Structures are given as structure tokens and as C-alpha cells.
Amino acid sequence: MKKLSSSQIRQMYLDFFKSKGHSIEPSASLVPVDDPSLLWINSGVATMKKYFEGRVVPENPRLTSSQKSIRTNDIENVGKTARHQTLFEMLGNFSVGDYFKKEAIPWAWEFMTSPKWMAFDPEKLFITVYPEDKVAKELWLQTGVKSDHLLEDEDNFWDIGEGPSGPDSEIFYDRGQKFNNVAEDDPENYPGGENERYLEVWNIVFSEFNHKPDGTYAPLPHKNIDTGMGLERLVSVVQETKTNFETDLFMPIIEATEQMSDGKRYGTDKTVDVSFKVIADHARAVTFAIGDGALPSNEGRGYVLRRLIRRATVHGKKLGINQAFLYKLVPVVGEIMASYYPEVLAQKDYIAKIIKSEEDRFNNTLTDGLKLLDKQIKTAKQAHEQTLSGKTVFMLFDTFGFPFDLTKEYAADEGLEVDEAGFNAEMKQQKDRARAARSQDNGMGVQSGLLLDVKVPSKFIGWDHLNKENAKLALVVADDKVVDQVTTGEAQVIFDETPFYAEMGGQVADRGDIFDAAGVKVATVTDVQHAPNGQNLHTVKVLAPLTKGQTYQLKVDPDFRRAVSRNHTATHLLDQALRDVLGEHVHQAGSLVEPDYLRFDFTHAGQTTAAELQQIETIINEKIWAALPISWVVTDIESAKKMGAIAIFTEKYGKEVRVVSIGDYSREFDGGTHANNTAELGLFKFTGETGIGAGVRRVEAVTGKAAFEFMAQREAWLQDTANLVKAPQLQNVVSKVEQLQDQLKQAEKQIESLQAKAAQQQAANIFQNVQTINDVTLVAEQVNVADMNQLRQLADDWKQKAVSDVLVLGTIVGEKVNLITAVTKDGIAKGIKAGDLIKAIAPKVGGGGGGRPDMAQAGGKNPAGMTDALQAAQTFLAGK
């Protein structure tokens, strides 16, 4: 067996199958494209579904890949076992109706044993086959596998329900007795058993049957090969490590974490090792996931990321790391994977920003949350309870952001369970409250039933036309019924052809009117949506009878369409300008295009600065003033990609796509309407920028007339300001305001000086009124000062002059009361504490407070209680 690095092993595998006529498929994004059945890409074959299902015919039926994958069904086991990872790479070779067993089996043996390739000792390899798969068994024997190294196993049949299935063969490597964790006579001590000696490294699935809905199996017309070999596991074999974590894929991350810990070292303590492993695994997973466009959030894959980051943060605390640290491991991950995934290092700054932002957010509440959790665990143990209550677990979730599974895992480490049913009950109550607070949108409910089977033909002609003569009314729905005629009220209608754009991709629907053959307006179009079978479904306010089968004239409101189209074009310019200024990591995360404004959401860590917004705005306006032509073509997806068109991967595209080009500046997949030339936009102006979630920003903007009105309003405000500050011209406003600010600062300083002098004069008087109570000297007075700061200044003067043991001062500012207490060292020695004193007197003024033994302060809302508060100070000392 050769000594190889992980990158060498990966490349060797791909090179081997390339030599067998396979095309190397690049590792796809972890975020599935057009596959709602998957939260993450979780295997190599997951990216090949389109081929195996027959939706796409590959150029080459022989394919190979090293596919990054994420599985999160057992996160809690990561770090506690030898080979559990959330992120892993799956090496695979695939045949789509091409070669089968007689090629796949000898190739596998050649790759594993040939001196040119992995050079494994054949004596250390064991093969398992499905007992009824006689062909595979015979082929393994012919290939050179000894009969005592070939085992039958009933579990060697790959079947996940309906669809392709078939027998499989697994290859096991004998790591030797030193790795064995079971007794020699243990029934699990064999290749395929639950032990650490015989390690499965490769699974070859012979997909030859179709599992039918009735439970029977029929031969597939095209047999396929689907293999999977975990890179991390194979590397651990080659590098002879006890677990996957001691390989070159993880150790640099663990070593970097050691340097940030409080002296903890990997390999010295099992509990400590778990934390190092969790951090190493999660650092890889979140780095790759964020690099592929996922972002932390409260649901879906975003929740998985948030959970991984928080879990790593908690384990960092266990290693003595009490600040954000996970983001520092991003470049370490990037360096390890640079040979095959250079994009990680290219995006390292962006990825690190996202992770640090999430870490900081969690760290703000983590310390308090952990204290509460530790307290609850301690209380439960003292009461000899075995379970944390659902209310406690929910409070940790709701107030401190602790995921349920994280609390469950933390409690389990302390030998406790959690009340999951109670937690779920609390969660349900919260959801019920939120649901009750939301209004229900009943619009378009008609689609849910009546229109599912409606397949009347309807064509959109609105790219080039805003009017349509002789449009035939094909369907009428009123009062949740399909009818032949409607005479009043609201209805939904479909025409054989329509120029009305249906709402899609954030662009609102057209508005307009419907006229009869005589030119009489019979309806107003208030909304247009897509019916279940794709037709444009018009919601109309009926003014006169509409009859199925009759023809009508459809007129789109041209001003409304032009305004919306201008703003839609602006979103394309904005999308490209954002990438130009902020970086290629920026992706569209949502949009809304209205006639009077546009809204655009995009991925980006941190606030977009005013300077960056100004730069983006300038770029867009320069493109507007350049009068760039806007054109579009309909083509196939691959041709569109070759054109450099940008796709939004949250959208679904058919076989043909529409590509919109704005000069040579922007080219995107798009299904909306646009201006004909950027000059039509006139002017672009941002009106707002904000964050709407971790790593997602939102900008709002206006164009054309709305932009002019926006600027005109601000000019009017500026003119009003000029009049107020008596600036002769607008350009003098800034200098005039600066002059007034300087004058204000000088006035404030003079006021503060006068107030200080007044306070000193008061001090000369009040410090003479010293009382003695129980051998403790006291000054307790109401003074007339501006705020708490001046009370503290008086207390400092009192301290310097050593007037008495105890000081109590109060002032009334409007309807509020401020109190301060101070005690000298001698007073403290006599058992007097300022904090105790303030707590005793503050209730008299309707307030509360606290502080140190030598000084404390309080606020209140009952000025009438000032005399009682000062008297309470005397009573407090009298009781000592």
C-alpha cells in the first residue's frame, strides 16, 4: 500500500476512471439545484439523478466524481465515533446504461491492488456479495479474489423503495488485530460485522431492477453502476490512523484549534478529544456550505448551519475558547482542500465574515444561557430528578437561541434527559400565537381545486404587445364555480391569448381593462397569476356581462407596464453592480418590482457602507446614461450558460430559457418585462438599506419620475434647512450648520461650567449639615443639579474633603428623581454599604437601584417621596 496524501488519493481515483473512458464530473454545490427532495447534496449519486431518471442524457454514459456531501441525521454522534462526519467526500464511478458487472468488478480490484494505483495487499481485502448474485460472485473469483475472502451477506441489496434497486458488493480492508475492538470469538468479528478491524471502504451497487409500487421487481431496461467510496475513510486506511480525524484532512484544523485553546491538547483526554473533533468537522461543513451559498437562519439548511456553528461554539467553551474562533479556521480548511476546491480560499474572507457574525450573535447570549442551563442541571440533580422540564428547554431555545438538540446533548453529557413532549407543547403554543397574529390570505384559493384539471390553451403575447383584439374568453370562474357567464362582482378569467403579464419572479402583474366588441369597458383587471397548468389567470372586477366563448379587447395600462419594466431593468443593473463592488459572493435572495419602487435582497456579510452604496449608484446611473440597448433571446439552458447568463438557482427553468441582455454589461436568465433601452430609466436612486437576516441585506430604490420626486423632496428639505439656519445659498448650508454646532458646543460648555460652580456653592452649604447617628456621621440633602453626573461630581468633592462617613444626595429633574449614596472606608468598616443603603431608600421615590459598597445610585418616578427617602437614610443608620 502506497503512502499518499488525501489530495493524491482523490486525484488517483479520478485519474484511474478517466483512463477507463469516464468523464470527470466537477463536485456540485452542496445546495441542491432544482431538487426539493433534498436539503443538501448527500451523496455522489444525488447529483446524477437527472441521468439515472432519464430526464437528461449525459454526453458520456461513463462518469466519475469526488462529490462533497453533507448528512445531518446524526449530528450528535459527530466527535463521539471514529467516522461520523457532517461533511464528507464521496468518490464514485457511474455507468448510465453502459458497462455493468463484468467491467465494474475487475476495475475495482485493479484500482485497489495494482502497483500502478493504490497497491493494497490482496490478502487484506475482503469482498461481500448478495447470496443470490451468482454472477458477481463468479466475477470476483475470476478477478483473483480468494474464495475464503469472498463472503455472502443478505444485507448486500440496495433498495430504498420504489425505483431502481439491485444487489451490491462491499470491499473491506483488514487493518489488523491492533485495531480490533472485539474479542476473537465475538460474533461481530468478521468483515461486515460491527468492529474496528475490518473497515468498509467501497460499495458497488449493481442497479438492475425496478422496484414497482406493488412490491415486485422487474428488470431495468438499462442497467446502471453506482459506486461510493468515502474519501475520509480511505485516507484513514492509507495513513493508518485510528480514526478519520487523525488524517491530513482534519489534523491541521485540530492543531490550529489547540493553539486557540487554554492549553488543551488532542489525544490526552477523551472528553477533550470529542470537542476537538466536533470543531474540526463543523468547521469544514460550515465553510463549504456557506461557500456554496447557504446562510445561517432559523429554518431549513440555514438552521443546520446555525446549529453547527453554535455546537462548535459550545465545544470551544469547553476548550477554554471564550470568543469567536471558528471563523479563524476557514483559511485552514481552505489550505487543506485547495488542490481540488480552490474556491474556498478565494471566498475565505466572505465565509469568515458570515461565520464570525453568527458566532458573535450567539456568544452575546451563550454565557448567560450556559449559566442558566448549568443552574437548572444542578437543581435537577440536587432534587434527584432525571429530566429537564420542557419549559426550561423552551426558554433556552426562545431566549438564548439554544437549539433543542444542543440542550439535549449538553444535558445528556450530565446524565440527564429532557422533556421533549413539554418542549413541543411550548413550541406549539408559540406557533399558535404567531399564527393567530397573522392575517390569512385567501386570494387565489380558487386555484387549489377548480383549476387543477383546467387545461384550456392560453398564450402570453405581452413581450411585444400591450393590446389584444379578439381575445377569446376560454374560462370563467365566479363564486368558486366554473360558469358560462358572470354579470357583476369579482371573477377569474382565462383568454386564449393575453398581453397581461402574470406575477412572477418578484415582478408584479399588469393592470388594465377589458372591452367588448362595441368598445364598452366590461371589466377591470386587478391581478394576474399563473393557474396550476400555467395559463395567465386574470382576476377582474366585472362591470358588464362576461360570456365564455365571446371575444374581447384586452388593454394593458401602458404607464403601469412601463414603470414596472423600468424598475425591473434596474434590478438587473443593480444585481451586476453589487457584484462589481461587493464581490462575486453576492447572490440575489429575493426581489419585488412595483411601478413606484423596487426592492432587492442579496447575500452579503455586514452592512453595505454609504461609500459602497454611492459607488453602486454611480455605476448604475452611468449605465443608464450610456443608453445601453436591451435585448432578449429564447434558447436552451446550456447555450444560455455558454453566453455567460446568470441564473438564480432558487428558480426552476424549463428546457428553454429567456436570456435578457443589457448591452454587454448584464446577461441573466429572466422571465420579466423590461425597458427597451437603459436611457428610459432616467435616474436611479437608493432610498434605503437594511439587514433582514444573517448575511442577507435589502436595498430599496426608485427610478425615473419617482427618483426625480425623491430628489426634489430632499432639495425642498435642504432649502427649508437653509432658511432656518439663515444660509444665503444651498451650498452654504453645511458650513452654516457646522458654525451653529460649534456655537452650541461652546454654549453647552459654559452651561456645564456654570452648573459646576452652582454645585460647588451648594456643596459649601450642604456639607456643613453633618448629622451623627450611632457613631456614624451623615450628610443627607436634596440639591438642585441637572442630572446624575453632577450628583457624582458632588460625591467626588465630598470624598476629597472627608466631610462624613456617609453621603446621601437627591435631585428632582422634571418628574424624575435621582439618588446617590456614598460611604467612606471607615463607614464600610462600621458595616455600612452604599448598595444596601440605596436599596433601603429608593422605594420611597418609587424606584430601585444598586451599586458597590462605596457608591451606589438609583432612579425613581415619585418626586413627592424625596423627603421620606432622606429620612429613610437616617432610619437605616439608626438601625445599625
Automatic annotation (TrEMBL):
List the subcellular locations.
Cytoplasm
The EC number on file is 6.1.1.7
Read off the InterPro entries from this record: aa-tRNA-synth_II/BPL/LPL, Ala-tRNA-lgiase_IIc, Ala-tRNA-ligase_IIc_anticod-bd, Ala-tRNA-synth_IIc_core, Ala-tRNA-synth_IIc_N, Ala-tRNA_ligase, Ala_tRNA_ligase_euk/bac, DHHA1_dom
Keywords on record: Aminoacyl-tRNA synthetase, ATP-binding, Coiled coil, Cytoplasm, Ligase, Nucleotide-binding, Protein biosynthesis, RNA-binding, tRNA-binding
Q: Ranges for the Alanyl-transfer RNA synthetases family profile domain?
A: 4-713
Q: Which reaction does it catalyse?
A: tRNA(Ala) + L-alanine + ATP = L-alanyl-tRNA(Ala) + AMP + diphosphate
**Leading EC class:** ligase
Domain remark text: Consists of three domains; the N-terminal catalytic domain, the editing domain and the C-terminal C-Ala domain. The editing domain removes incorrectly charged amino acids, while the C-Ala domain, along with tRNA(Ala), serves as a bridge to cooperatively bring together the editing and aminoacylation centers thus stimulating deacylation of misacylated tRNAs.
Q: What is this protein called?
A: Alanine--tRNA ligase
